[in-house]
Design a protein that fits this description.
Rossmann fold; 5 helices; 128 residues; 20% strand; alpha/beta
Length: 128
């Protein structure tokens, strides 16, 4: 089973979770893990690790991070190397990438999901 975690700063994770669930119609499918301004990087890493470990029925996890190189991204990268779960990280996530992940996560293998997520994330950015 593939689970989706949204990791990021301040309101990003909860906003993406609520919006993703609203548009997709799937409730309680996503997990938000928010970095607050008063949290230290190690504290956030422990919180994200707890989220990952709590998903006992998920052997594959996609972590959508708001910013490549930010604390949530760094924590996810470190944790991905220290777990028996298969974890993929999407840095610089946007709503099109998240919605794609939500809609196809149960119908494709993890590598193909990531490929589609990245493609749709890039296609979701246009100038007009």
């Amino acid at each position: 089973m593939v689970k989706i975690v949204i990791a990021g700063h301040y309101g990003f994770p909860k906003g993406m979770k609520k919006t993703g669930e609203f548009i997709s119609g799937l409730k309680h499918e996503l997990i938000a893990c928010t970095l607050h301004s008063d949290e230290q990087p190690e504290d956030y890493k422990e919180k994200l690790q707890s989220v990952i470990q709590s998903e006992k029925d998920a052997d594959q996890i996609i972590i959508f991070c708001d910013l490549i190189g930010g604390t949530p991204f760094k924590a996810a990268m470190q944790l991905a190397q220290k777990t028996d779960k298969q974890i993929k990280i999407v840095g610089g996530a946007n709503l099109p990438s998240l919605l794609t992940g939500i809609m196809i996560k149960d119908n494709m293998n993890l590598e193909d999901i990531i490929s589609e997520v990245i493609k749709e994330g890039k296609n979701g950015i246009k100038a007009f």
